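Researcher: For the annotation table, I need structure tokens for Glycosyltransferase. Please keep the output clean. Sequence:
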Amino acid sequence: MALEKNTPHVLIFPYPSQGPLNCMMKLAELLAIVGLHVTVLNTEDTRQRLFLSSASLPAIPLLRFKSIPDGLPDDQPRDASLLIDVAESLNMNSRLLLRDLISEDSSDGFPPVTCLIVDGFLPSVVDLAEEIGLPCLSFRTPSACSIWAYLCIPKLLQNGVLPFGEGVDFNEVVQGVPGMEGFLRRRDLPEFFRGAKNADDPELKFMATVTAYSGKARGFILNTTEVLESTAVHHIQSQIPVTYSVGPLHAILESYRSACGTTDASPHTSSLWQEDTACLKWLDSQPDKSVVYVSFGSLTTLMREELHEFYSGLVNSGHKFLWVLRPDMIQDPGWTDEIKRSLPEEGRIISWAPQQKVLAHRAVGCFLTHSGWNSTLESIIEGVPMLCWPFFLDQQINSRFVSEIWRIGLDMKDIHNREVVEKMVRQMMEGESAARFRQSARDMADAVKESIAEGGSSLREFHRLIEDIKSMSNSVVLN
């Protein structure tokens, strides 16, 4: 008698930060919509923050949520400065808890776990999966171009390109990242590249190690499309052959929701902050393409002086703006209150936005952004040009691609004085330059939308991922 095939059940484990959570939650919902059982594993801290923010997680029969401790004290911050600390704590403390979770008998009718999809910052989970005989896929949520640069760290060290040393010209083009030799400057590399003093720099070693480790998983998932990053994807495939380019995931998900007739009935959000939906009514009252939307993401922090320079530049530009200022964005919350008290009629400040809806709104003319990958993809799919001020990690490289490769915005990297802010806002919003950026952004949006339509490259990759998960699940020997 033929053996009965295992029911695919995917355990998805995101890194506990807003960007990875957004991205991997969308993949989880997609996999559940197409008929796979999915468990999303969050940390207890993330679960609590989702509850406090009134997040509306999708209620799908094949999707459930579990949580485990991250191993850090409850009162310890989980901000950008502790990114590696959180990852190392999770890598150290999750193995035993995760093993118990995978092996436990389900009381809600879910079959045993047959496959893991884990954030690439958690390589210990890849090892655990192999130990217990489960296939594991690694998922990195930044851009492919940044991941390719991270994979090149050993070569850059070997060739003496890194570390930079004192007094170097940061506008000099970097040699040693194939495909980017003509335009990637030292200035465009992440802060842990630029600040490394030697080959043993802990941040540089951590990023090189976890990125290389993705090649040890059964496959490597990227939230991108070859329309945007074909060169970087092909270089990554030279080192990690089983790579899936399945993005933009948020747009694929919207397409599936629409096909299921659940778009209006599914206002799902995995936001760690309470969203201010009233800003959408304010946008309704503004003329088309008249508003600068400003958001520096979930982890960026500003010095008081930086905040004031951005504010002054926005006000002096004469354009209306909608600005997201998180409560934890600056150390002096009183300064945010002072900004709000002096706010002109043209401006509106909120603590967090329903960003996809804001970017899709007809009133938004450009996006002043930190160039996080989720934000970049959301802006691209809506055809909104970007003014980039990157903060850290992949954002530095993303902003260079926006300005120099895709030509859909400007890069304000390393600059934040009011004169430059005003000048660049005007370039993005006024006259022939604004018209050129908007046309380029519309053309790029059309090309990316084709990649997620029937027959498009990203949709084909997503279908390949599903079939490979089913195939891997069938091969698992369950106890």
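Researcher: And a one-line annotation?
Model: The radius of gyration is 22 Å.
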